[in-house]
Amino acid sequence: MSDTSGLTVLGKTVQHPIDHVEVFPAPANVTEVAFETDELMSMCPVTNQPDISSLTIEYAPDA
């Protein structure tokens, strides 16, 4: 199991922007990670109306 004792943001409610990304070593058996959400909101640059989208990010962590 990874040592996550130094994490200060991950798993907590955050009310303000942060200036760093928290990282921790990937477990040896993890070869691919996927993050999915169907709650991505942005503003349409043409109509200035809110757009709701989904997003999937897939990556392979360093060994």
Task: Kindly describe this structure.
- The structure is a single chain.
- This protein is an all-beta fold and 63 residues long.
- It is 0% helix and 33% strand.
- The chain has strands at residues 33-43, 50-59.
- It has a two-stranded antiparallel ribbon with strand order 1-2.
- Strand 1 and strand 2 form a beta hairpin.
- It is flat.
Task: Characterize this entry briefly.
The protein is mostly beta strands and 63 residues long. It is 0% helix and 33% strand. The model has no long low-confidence stretch (mean pLDDT 88).
List keywords for this structure.
single chain, mainly beta, two-stranded antiparallel ribbon, 2 strands, 0% helix
The strand order across the widest sheet is 1-2
Q: Determine the fraction of residues in helical runs and give it as a percent range.
A: under 10%
Shape: flat
- Beta content comes to 25-35%
Helices and strands, in order, run as EE
How far is it from the N-terminal to the C-terminal residue, by CA?
15 Å
Number of strands: 2
Main sheet characteristics: 2 strands, antiparallel
Class by SSE composition: mainly beta
The total of helices stands at: 0
Average pLDDT figure: 88
pLDDT < 50 runs, ≥5 residues: none
Radius of gyration: 16 Å
